Amino acid sequence: MPSPFVTRVKLALAFKGLSFEDVEEDLRSKSELLLVSNPVHKKVPVLIHNGKPICESLVILEYIDEAFSGTGPSLLPADPHHRAVARFWAAYIHEQVVAQFVQSIRGKTEEDKAEGIKQTFAAMETLEGALRDCSKGEGLFFGGGSVGLVDVLLGSLLSWLKAAEVISGTKYFDPVKTPLLAAWMERFSELAKAALPEVERVLEFSNMLAMAAAAAAAAASEN
């Protein structure tokens, strides 16, 4: 499954230059390893380091940054205020942008989907300002001159956002309305292409979800 939450971890490991074993998980038939490693939420991703599991993507990202301090670029800045700002925008993407984007593609009605698209566009305009401030006006990365925590979180959504563009024609990174983000997307996509899921795979997964939802709706209407 091309989960953006799993992609976050893969991106962080890749930017740190760390090798890892990627174990695919079938969430319809969860393995004993997953259930033992994450008994509370029973979800991916789970990072197992030195035989010990770390769960929840945001927790894993900070763990990677701390456990491998000095290896590769730091995901969080050293300055306490800058670190707090990065965590704020990371939470904004994690809690709001993801939910709005999910609504845009999985809303129960067309009105729900339209509202999700509207809110996602508004969030992108907000992030345009955040990129301008965090990158000190250079517009390179949210982490300044190098990739940071916020880049990883937004970057993990890129394949899904590009898939949505193929499906609906919705262009979330508008070079006119959000020029810094549009340039950031191109820059990040090239830098992280080895760790990002292929758009074709996301499209296949989206089609599978759509067919499953249609089948469930048909079955419900017959009962």
TrEMBL record:
CDD domains: GST_C_Tau, GST_N_Tau. Belongs to the GST superfamily. Tau family. It catalyses: RX + glutathione = an S-substituted glutathione + a halide anion + H(+). GO terms for molecular function: glutathione transferase activity. It is an enzyme of class 2 (transferase). GO terms for biological process: glutathione metabolic process. Residues 1-72 form the GST N-terminal domain. Is involved in the conjugation of reduced glutathione to a wide number of exogenous and endogenous hydrophobic electrophiles. The keyword Transferase applies. This is Glutathione S-transferase. It holds the Pfam family GST_C_2. Residues 79-205 form the GST C-terminal domain. One of its GO terms (cellular component) is cytoplasm. It comes from Brachypodium distachyon (Purple false brome). Keywords: Cytoplasm, Transferase. PROSITE patterns: GST_CTER, GST_NTER. Its EC number is 2.5.1.18. InterPro entries: Glutathione-S-Trfase_C-like (IPR010987), Glutathione-S-Trfase_C_sf (IPR036282), Glutathione_S-Trfase (IPR040079), Glutathione_S-Trfase_N (IPR004045), GST_C_Tau (IPR045074), Omega/Tau-like (IPR045073), Thioredoxin-like_sf (IPR036249). The keyword Cytoplasm applies. It comes from the Eukaryota.
